[in-house]
């Protein structure tokens, strides 16, 4: 297992009650595994899961991507800047 | 100049930042906080950003705009924190030799920022507050009749 650190923003942060979560996923676990695990550990995020984008090292990741412990990961709810 | 700021945007400073002797025109877009949203009166707004990534996304947008149109300079400033109605949340300024490129690049920058920048707006109403787009996931929202 590896432990990744995830930053949460906006509605994701409010639902999880924290702006940062440490999440354990299997070695070679992907962004999809991460979302699944986070939805299990924090059921309030569940309904939002398919609307959350994931950013890894400050870039949006659209297809499942393997993660490692040093990645900077963020959950990105639908944006509303501007 | 590409910046995320926490204090009121100085439009004069934004315009100064894109001055260039080669420029024949400047297009400026200023986004301001309006007093209504979803049929309700807005009393204040809060903007939040994943700052390092927002900075990067705004820089990438300016570079992309400069590659698509022949522009001289581009500045984008987005404010975060609590804003009162009427205050500027974002300014995009583009200078170019000719006005067509300035208008088009300016529009591209604000449209792309709104689509891609990891920045979120929370609207405060008299009776509560909600993230722009709602506190519920998109599919779960009650159907709305009529125009948005």
Structure description:
The complex is a heterodimer of chains A (82) and B (148). By secondary structure, chain A is an alpha+beta fold. Helix content of chain A is 22%, strand content 29%. Chain A has a five-stranded mixed sheet. Chain B is α+β, with helices and mostly antiparallel strands and 148 residues long. The interface between A and B is medium-sized, with 20 and 31 residues.
Strand order of the largest sheet of chain A: 2-1-5-3-4
Largest interface comes to: A-B, 20 and 31 residues
Beta-strand proportion of chain B: 35-45%
Structural class of chain A: alpha+beta
User: How many extended strands of chain B?
Assistant: 9
Instruction: Return the average pLDDT of chain B rounded to an integer.
Output: 92
* SSE-based structural type of chain B: alpha+beta
Strand/helix succession of chain B: EHEEEHEEEHEE
Unreliable runs of chain B: 144-148
Main features:
heterodimer; A: 82 residues; alpha+beta; globular; B: 148 residues; 3 helices; 9 strands; disordered C terminus
């Amino acid at each position: 297992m590896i432990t990744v650190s995830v930053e949460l923003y906006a509605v994701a942060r409010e639902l999880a009650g924290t702006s940062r979560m440490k999440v354990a996923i299997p070695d070679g676990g992907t962004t999809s595994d991460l979302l699944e695990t986070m939805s299990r550990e924090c059921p309030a995020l569940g309904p939002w899961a398919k609307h959350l984008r994931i950013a890894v090292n400050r870039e949006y990741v659209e297809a499942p991507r393997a993660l490692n412990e040093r990645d900077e990961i963020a959950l990105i709810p639908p944006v509303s800047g501007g | 100049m590409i910046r995320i700021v926490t204090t009121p945007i100085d439009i004069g400073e934004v315009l100064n930042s894109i001055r260039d002797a080669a420029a024949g025109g400047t297009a400026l877009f200023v986004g301001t906080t309006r007093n209504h949203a979803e049929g309700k009166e807005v009393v204040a707004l809060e903007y939040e950003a994943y700052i390092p990534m927002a900075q990067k996304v705004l820089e990438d947008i300016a570079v992309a705009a400069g590659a698509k149109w022949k522009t001289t300079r581009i500045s984008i400033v987005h404010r975060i924190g609590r804003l009162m109605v009427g205050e500027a949340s974002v300014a995009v300024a583009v200078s170019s030799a000719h006005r067509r490129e300035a208008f088009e690049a300016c529009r591209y920058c604000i449209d792309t920022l709104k689509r891609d920048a990891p920045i979120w707006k929370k609207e405060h109403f008299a009776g509560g507050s909600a993230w722009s787009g709602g506190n519920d996931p998109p599919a779960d929202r009650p159907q709305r009749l009529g125009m948005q």
